[in-house]
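Continuing from the previous page...

OK, I double-checked the sequence for Cell division ATP-binding protein FtsE against my notes and this is the correct one:
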Amino acid sequence: MIEMKNVHKVYDNGVTALSGISTKIEAGEFVYVVGQSGAGKSSFIKLMYHEEVPTDGKVNINHIDIGKMKKRQVPYLRRNIGVIYQDFKLLPKLTAYENVAFALEVIEENPRKIRRRVMDVLDKVGLKHKARFIPAQLSGGEQQRVAIARAIVNNPKIVIADEPTGNLDPDTSWEIMRIFEEVNDTGTTLIMATHSREIVNSIRKRVIAMENGQIVRDEHRGEYGYED
Ligand SMILES: Nc1ncnc2c1ncn2[C@@H]1O[C@H](COP(=O)(O)OP(=O)(O)OP(=O)(O)O)[C@@H](O)[C@H]1O
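Thanks. Re-ran it with the corrected sequence; updated structure tokens here:
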């Protein structure tokens, strides 16, 4: 469970990105985070994987205050959280296989287990046959699928995606959403910041809407609900 209590985030340059955020996300939920550019969506989700720390307030994951976590503890947190970005962030010189394996190798799994697990997740995202391709040889949608495979390879409890379909065409975006739904169906909490009205209004889930660093709406099976 992710819980924020009266969270404020003021960046070093004095910009207030979040003010007075309190919310709870239960294990297994699927949550969209929507709002105009600059509303605070990225700041909100970055606090959940300790990419940023709150200026004030608490960010608890399973009752552990991650805002106060020491740097050396962060890798342990990250093993339980898969992160997916708009621009994929794959390592350009590594193959699809190596990009995914890298996430496992850093936790010293044995090689046979790594191979099986990596091929399993590449299969899950439909890319087993392109395991030897490097990112430049893959389409945007395929690169994002590799990034998803990398994010789920450690069986994280939480997957956080920041505008994962932002660089993809509509058909490819729906494929990505199908994979997210499958990931969520296995009990993984899925949190996704998005600007896609079509996705939010079609695949109905909880919607947290942000404006000026605050949560202005939080609905079960909500709608996108504002004009861009
Ligand atoms: N590292 C940073 N340093 C200073 N200000 C920042 C930083 N990151 C974000 N901000 C500011 O905080 C506010 C919220 O930004 P944030 O990226 O959280 O919004 P967003 O809703 O994710 O926007 P977008 O949809 O454009 O990605 C903005 O005013 C932004 O300029």
